[in-house]
C-alpha cells in the first residue's frame, strides 16, 4: 500500500470485488490503445505509425463511423430540444427544409412529454408506449398491451433491470450463448451471479443446439446453480446469425419444460440480410395457438423482448433509447420491476422520443417518406454491401473461415494460427487471438475484438469485426496485414 493510498478511503483492494471481476472486451485494452493512437493522429503526431486513420471496427457505433442520422428523426429532435422553433413554423418549412409532418410529430411528442427536460413516468411516456404496442402488433400480428412495455436507457438498461430482478443470490444462474455480447457476463459478475454458458453451433450458421443447452443446464443444476433464465441474442452478436422459426420454438418449449425466463435480445431485428426476422413474441404466440398447446403447457412462459434505437438503420447510440416488453410475468413481479426502474427515475426522455420515431416512422404518403425511405434503404444497402465485401475478403485469407453474413453488424471469422504465432502470444502472456488483434491494430489502425472477449470453444480462435466503416480501404489493410502476419509466423 502506497503512502497516498493510506490517505484515502478507497483503494483497489477494498472496492466492490464483483466490479473488478467483470470484463467488457468491446471497450477493453485494444479499444483504449486505439483511442491513444487516434489522439496522437489528431495532434498531427503520426510518428512512426504505419497508418493515418483509426478504424473502430470493435463496436457497433454507427454514427462514429460516418453513418448519417435519419433526417426526419433529427429534425423532430431539434424542435423537441428547442420548442421556440415552433414560433415560426413557416420559416422552418419554407427556408430550413422541414416538412409539415416533422412539425406535427414534434408537436405531438411535446404534448405527450411536455418537455424533454422533464422527467417522464418511470416506465415511459404513455403515448410512446402505445406507439410501441402498435408497432409490435403490426410486426407480429398479435396484440400488445402498453402496460407491459417499459422504456429503458438503451436495451442495456433493460438487461440490467431484468437481471437485477432475476438474480436472487450468488447461486442464481442464467444460460448465456457463447459466443455472447459481454454485457451479460459482465452484469452477472457485478451481481455476483453465475453465467451458465451454452455453445452455439458454428458449422450450423451459429444456430442453437438444444442438446447443448440441455447439457449445460443439467451440469449447472448438478453443481448447485439455480438456473432461472436463458438469454438468446437474435440476430446474433457477435455472430451475425439469424435464428429460424424452428430454433425459436425449440427454445420456447425448452423454457416451458424447465420453467426458465426467456430474455430475447432483438436489437438487430432490422439488420437481416438473409432470410427474415421472426420475433420470439411471434414464436410464442404461434406456439400458444398451436395444437401442441392443447393442455395449456405453454401459456405461462415468461418472455422479455428487448429492442433499441442504437442499431438498425437508426444508429442513435448516444441518445440511449430502448424498451422491453414482458409477457407471462406475475403481476407482483412486474410491480417490483416498476419499483426498480422508479429508483432510477426514468429513461432519457429524448431517447424515448427517438424510440417512438423508430417504431412509427414516416409512412407512404407522408411528406417526409420519400427522403426517409431513401436514407433508410441507403444505409441498409451500404451495410449489406460492406458485409459481403468483407466476407469475400475473409474467404480469400489463409487460415480464415467465416459464416455467411446473415445479419446484425458483425462478422465473427475463425482464424487458424501457427504454433510459432501461438508461442509468440504466450511470450507476451496473451491469448493467440488477442495477440493477433493487437498486431492488427498496431500495423493497420483497425481495431477489432478477439474472440476470447466473447467466449469460444476451446481450441478455436476468432475475432469480431463490424462492417460499419465506410469504403473498402480498411478491408485491404486487413488482408495485407494477414498475409504478412502468416508469412512472419509460418512454422
From TrEMBL:
Keywords: Aminotransferase, Pyridoxal phosphate, Transferase. InterPro entries: ALAT1/2-like, Aminotransferase_I/II_large, PyrdxlP-dep_Trfase, PyrdxlP-dep_Trfase_major, PyrdxlP-dep_Trfase_small. The keyword Transferase applies. The keyword Transferase applies. Gene3D superfamilies: 1.10.287.1970, Aspartate Aminotransferase, domain 1 (3.90.1150.10), Type I PLP-dependent aspartate aminotransferase-like (Major domain) (3.40.640.10). Residues 102-472 form the Aminotransferase class I/classII large domain. It holds the Pfam family Aminotran_1_2. GO terms for molecular function: pyridoxal phosphate binding; transaminase activity. Its cofactor is pyridoxal 5'-phosphate. Transmembrane segments: none annotated. Belongs to the class-I pyridoxal-phosphate-dependent aminotransferase family. Alanine aminotransferase subfamily. PANTHER family: ALANINE AMINOTRANSFERASE, ALANINE TRANSAMINASE. Homodimer. This is Glutamate pyruvate transaminase.
Amino acid at each position: 500500500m502506497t503512502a497516498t493510498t493510506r490517505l484515502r478511503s478507497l483503494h483497489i483492494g477494498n472496492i466492490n470485488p464483483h466490479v473488478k471481476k467483470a470484463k467488457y472486451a468491446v471497450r477493453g485494452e485494444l479499444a483504449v490503445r486505439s483511442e491513444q493512437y487516434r489522439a496522437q493522429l489528431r495532434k498531427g503526431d503520426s510518428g512512426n505509425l504505419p497508418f493515418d486513420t483509426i478504424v473502430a471496427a470493435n463496436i457497433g457505433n454507427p454514427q462514429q463511423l460516418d453513418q448519417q442520422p435519419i433526417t426526419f428523426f433529427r429534425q423532430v429532435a431539434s424542435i423537441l430540444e428547442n420548442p421556440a422553433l415552433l414560433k415560426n413554423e413557416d420559416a422552418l418549412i419554407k427556408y430550413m427544409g422541414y416538412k409539415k409532418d416533422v412539425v406535427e410529430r414534434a408537436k405531438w411528442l411535446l404534448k405527450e412529454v411536455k418537455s424533454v427536460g422533464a422527467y417522464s413516468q418511470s416506465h415511459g411516456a404513455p403515448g410512446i408506449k402505445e406507439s410501441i404496442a402498435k408497432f409490435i402488433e403490426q410486426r407480429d400480428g398479435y396484440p400488445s398491451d402498453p402496460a407491459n412495455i417499459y422504456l429503458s436507457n438503451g436495451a442495456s438498461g433493460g438487461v440490467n433491470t431484468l437481471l437485477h430482478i432475476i438474480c436472487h443470490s450468488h447461486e442464481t444462474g442464467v444460460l448465456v450463448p457463447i459466443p455472447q455480447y459481454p454485457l451479460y457476463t459482465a452484469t452477472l459478475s457485478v451481481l455476483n451471479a453465475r453465467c451458465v454458458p451454452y455453445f452455439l453451433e458454428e458449422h450450423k450458421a451459429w444456430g442453437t443446439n438444444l442438446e447443448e443447452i440441455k447439457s449445460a443446464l443439467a451440469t449447472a443444476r448438478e453443481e448447485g446453480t439455480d438456473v432461472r433464465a436463458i438469454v438468446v441474442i437474435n440476430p446474433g452478436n457477435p455472430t451475425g446469425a439469424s435464428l429460424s422459426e424452428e430454433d425459436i420454438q425449440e427454445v420456447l418449449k425448452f423454457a416451458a419444460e424447465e420453467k426458465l425466463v426467456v430474455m430475447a435480445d432483438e436489437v438487430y431485428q432490422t439488420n437481416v440480410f438473409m432470410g427474415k426476422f421472426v420475433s420470439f413474441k411471434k414464436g410464442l404466440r404461434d406456439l400458444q395457438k398451436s395444437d401442441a398447446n392443447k393442455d395449456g403447457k405453454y401459456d405461462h412462459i415468461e418472455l422479455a423482448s428487448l429492442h433499441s434505437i442504437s442499431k438498425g438503420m437508426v444508429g442513435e447510440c448516444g441518445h440511449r433509447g430502448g424498451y422491453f416488453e414482458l409477457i407471462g410475468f406475475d403481476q407482483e413481479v412486474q410491480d417490483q420491476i416498476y419499483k426498480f426502474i422508479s429508483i432510477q427515475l426514468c429513461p432519457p426522455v429524448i431517447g424515448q422520443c427517438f424510440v417512438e420515431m423508430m417504431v412509427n416512422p414516416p409512412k407512404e404518403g407522408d411528406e417526409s417518406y420519400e427522403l426517409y425511405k431513401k436514407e433508410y434503404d441507403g444505409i441498409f444497402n451500404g451495410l449489406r454491401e460492406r458485409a459481403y465485401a468483407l466476407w469475400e475478403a475473409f474467404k480469400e485469407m489463409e487460415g480464415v473461415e467465416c459464416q455467411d453474413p446473415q445479419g446484425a453488424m458483425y462478422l465473427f471469422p475463425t482464424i487458424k494460427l501457427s504454433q510459432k504465432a501461438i508461442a509468440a502470444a504466450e511470450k507476451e502472456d496473451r491469448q493467440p487471438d488477442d495477440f493477433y488483434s493487437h498486431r492488427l491494430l498496431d500495423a493497420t489502425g483497425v481495431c477489432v475484438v478477439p474472440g476470447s472477449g466473447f467466449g469460444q470453444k476451446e481450441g478455436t480462435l476468432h475475432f469480431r469485426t463490424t462492417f460499419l466503416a465506410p469504403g473498402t480501404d480498411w478491408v485491404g489493410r486487413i488482408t495485407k496485414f494477414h498475409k504478412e502476419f502468416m508469412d512472419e509466423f509460418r512454422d
